[in-house]
Amino acid sequence: MRPSSRSPRRVSTALVLLATLAGPPTALAQFRPPPATEAQRLSEQGEQALVSANAAAAKGDKKEAEEKFRRALQLFEQSLAQEPQSVITAAGLGSAANALQDFQRTVARLQPLFAQNPGELSLAYPLGTAYFKLRRFNEAVPVLEQVAAADQPDHLIVHYYLASYYLYAQDGNRAVTRLQRYLALRPEKLAGNDFQIHELLGKAHLLRRDAPAARAAFEKSQAGRAESAPAQIGLAAVLELEGRVPEARALLERLVTKFPQAAEPKERLARQYLSAGDVPRAEAQALALVKLGATPASHLLLGDVRLAQKQPAQAEAEFRKVLELQPGLLLGQIAVGKALQAQARHEEAIQFLETAVKSGGGSLELWATLGSVNRRAGRFQRAVEVHRRVVEMAPRQALGWMLLGADHFATGQWDQAIEDYGSALQVEPNHPGAKQWLARALAHRARDRAGTQRMDDAARDLRRAYDLDRSVAMGRRLGAVLLDSRQYVEARKVMEGAVTLPGATWREHLLLGYARLGSGDAQAALAAFTQSGEATQEPDQRAEASAGAALAEVELGQVDAAVQRLSDAGPSKSAAKVAEANLPRVLVRRALAKLEAGDAAAANRDLDAVDRLGTGKRTDLAKLATFARALTRAEEGKFAEASSGLKRALTPVPDWAWSNTRALSDAWVLYRQGKVAPSRKLLATAQKKPMPGQPRWMGALTGALLRREAALAYASGNMKASEKALKAALAVTPEDAVVQHNLACVDWRQGDTSSALATWKRLEPSVAVAALNLGIDAQERRHEPAEAVDAWRRYLAAGAGPRAAQVREWKDRLQGLYGLGDASGANPAGVTAEETP
C-alpha cells in the first residue's frame, strides 16, 4: 500500500487494525476499507509532491524543488475544486503556494475556509505567514499570535515573524517575549544561527531602554565569531543609551574604517552627527553612503542632511529617489511629506500623505506626520482626528497623546493639552518630552489664570509644572506668581532653590530679593539685590537691582542711601516705575523720622520734595504726607495749620491710621502748645483702646505732659505742683535722668540743697545742665566763685547748650572779679530746671 498523509484516515486505519487483531479470525475477511474519492487521491498525491519538493529544497536543488512545489500546488487546486471544504487540502495548498511565494493565492484560497474554522492551526499557520509576507500586519499579527499560543515546535518560525513585527512597531517588550520563546523551542541543529536572534534581542532591549540587557544580548551575538558590524553597532547604541555618546561615536568611527563597504555604520554615524548638529560630517558620511550604493537608506539619509542644511527642495529630490528605488516605502513617503511641509507647501504635503495612508500605509510615523502637517497648515480638527487614530494604533505608547497635546497646545486649549500630556505620562512615566510639555501647558494655563486674578489656581499649576520641570524658567514663573499673591515665604523657598539651578541669572536673584523683603528679612534681601546687580553688566538690569536694594535699605533704616538710589533710578523703565511708586513714600518716612529727631526743617525739605514728585492717585500716601506736614507745623509753633492739616489727613480715617490716631495727634499738638489739661484728656481717651505698639508711645507722651506740667508749675513758682508732676513722671520712666535732675531742682528751690547737689553730681556725666546748676549753687548759695567757674567750664566743654553764651559771660565776669579781668560780677537768678530752646 502507498502511504497516506491524511491524519483522519491513518487514525481510522490504525483503529480498524487494532480491532482486527483483537477479534475472531473471520473479522479480517469481513473488513474492506472504503475506496478513496478522487479528491482524496489528488490530495494524497499533492502531499507526496510536497514531501519531495521539501527534500529537493533541503538538498539545494532549487529547480527540482520549484517543479515539485508547482506540481503539489496543481494537485491541491484540483482536489480543492472537488472538495472546497477540505481543511487538509487547503493547508497543503497554502504550504505549496507560500513556498512559491504566491502569497496572494494562499490568502484567496484559505481566508474563506479559515473564517469557517477559526481554531484550525493547520490553516492559521500558512494564512498568517502569507499575510505577514504581504505586509498586511493588522491581519497577520492576530492569526500568528494564535499559532504562537499553541507553542508547537513545527511553528517555530512564527515567533521570529512576530518578533520582527514588534521590532518594526517599536514594541520592545513583546519582541523580547517572542525571541526568548524562539530560543527555548528551537532545535539544536539551528543553534548556529542564535547570534541573529541575540542581535534582535539586543535591539528589543534597546527599545525597552534596558541598557544592561541589550549589552548582554549583543555580547552573546558577538561571542565566538569574528567582529560583526551589526553587533558592534548595537553596542554603540548601548553606549549612546548609557549617555556615553563620545564613546559610541568613537566606536562607529572605528567601524566605518574597519568595514568600509558596510552601509549601516556610516548611516548610524551620520545620524549621530546630525543629532549633535555636526552637519558637515553628517554630509560626508551620507555622500559616502550614496557612493557605496544608491539605496533607499542612503538617499533617505542624504535627504535628512539637506533638510538640516535648510535645503528642503534638494531634500525633496533625494526623498523622491527613495520612492523611485522602492515605491510605496513608508519612510520615503513620510520624508517627502516633511520636505513639502518645510517648503510651506502644506496642501501638497497633506495630499501626498493622505494618498499614502489610503494606499494601505499603517505606519504610526506616517499617521503621526500626516496629523502634524495638518496642524502646521492650520487644519487643527483634522490633526486631532488623525492623531486620535495614532492613539488607537499604539495605546501603550506616549506618541499619540504627545501629538494630541501638541494640537491642543497650538490652539491654546490648555485643559485638553494638560490632559493629553498627562495621559502620555501614564503610559510612559519617564517620557522626558511629556514632562516638559506638560509643564509648559501648565505654565500657559497659569498665565491665563493669573490674568483673571485666579492667583491660587495659577500658583497650583506652576507648583506642579516646577515639580515636572525643575528649571530656572519654571522657578521664576512660580516665584513671580507667589510674589503677586503675597505668599512671600513660599516665594522665598522657591527662589532660593531657583538661584542654585544651572542658568540662573540676575533676574532670579532680583525676585529672591523681593521675596526676602516681603518675608521680613531686609538684610538678606539687600544681599540678594546686590548679587543681582553684580550678575549683570547691563545698565537697565543693574538699575532694577538698585531699585530693589533701595527698598531693602529703607527697611534697614538706611533711608538716606535709599533716597539717593531712588532719586537716580537710571535708564530702566521698570526701575523708574519702582522709584516713582516708592520715592514719595520713602521721603515721607524720612520726614517722620526727622520729626522724631526734632529736625522739623529737614522734614519740611523732604515733604517739599514729595509735593514736587506728586503722589498720583495714592490717596493714602497723600494723606500721610499731609499728616507729616501737620506735625512739622506743630513743631514750628504753627498750631492752627497743624490742627487743620491733621483734620484733612485723618478725615475719613485712612488705611494706615488707627481709630485713635486723631486723638493722639491732637493731644500732641496741644502738648506742643503747652495746653496740658486738654492734651491729657485726649490722651486718656485714646488710651482706653490702645493699638499694637502704642502703649510705649503713650507712656512717652504721658511723661512729656507731666514734665511740661512740672516745668510750667516750676516757672510759676509752684514747687509743690511741680514736685508732684515730676514724681508722677518718674513713676512712668524711673531711669529718666532729666526727670531726676529736674526733681533735684525742685528740692533745691525748696531748701533740700544737699540732696539736690548729690543728684546733680551723679547725673553730670549724662545731663550737661547739672554742671550749670552746680556752678549756680557754688556762686549764689555758697559763694565759692572758683567752684562756680570750674563747674561752668565743664558745662561749656560738654557742648553748645542754649545758655552757653550767658554762662560764658558769667564765667568771664567771675574770672575778672577775682583777678582774671576787669569785668564786674553778675549773680544768676537761680538754678535751671531744664534746657529748652
From TrEMBL:
Signal peptide interval: 1-29
- Lineage, uppermost ranks: Bacteria, Pseudomonadati, Myxococcota, Myxococcia, Myxococcales
Keyword Hydrolase set for record: no
Give the species this sequence originates from. Answer: Corallococcus praedator
Q: At which residues are the TPR repeats?
A: 364-397, 398-431
Looking up Gene3D superfamilies in the UniProt record yields: Tetratricopeptide repeat domain
Q: What is this protein called?
A: Tetratricopeptide repeat protein
Alphabetical UniProt keywords: Repeat, Signal, TPR repeat
SMART domains per record:
TPR
Q: Does the keyword Hydrolase apply?
A: no
Tell me which InterPro entries the record gives: CellSynth/LPSAsmb/PSIAsmb, TPR-like_helical_dom_sf, TPR_2, TPR_rpt
Q: Which PANTHER family match?
A: LIPOPOLYSACCHARIDE ASSEMBLY PROTEIN B, TPR REPEAT-CONTAINING PROTEIN PA4667
Q: PROSITE patterns attached here?
A: TPR
Output the Pfam families linked to this UniProt entry. TPR_16, TPR_2
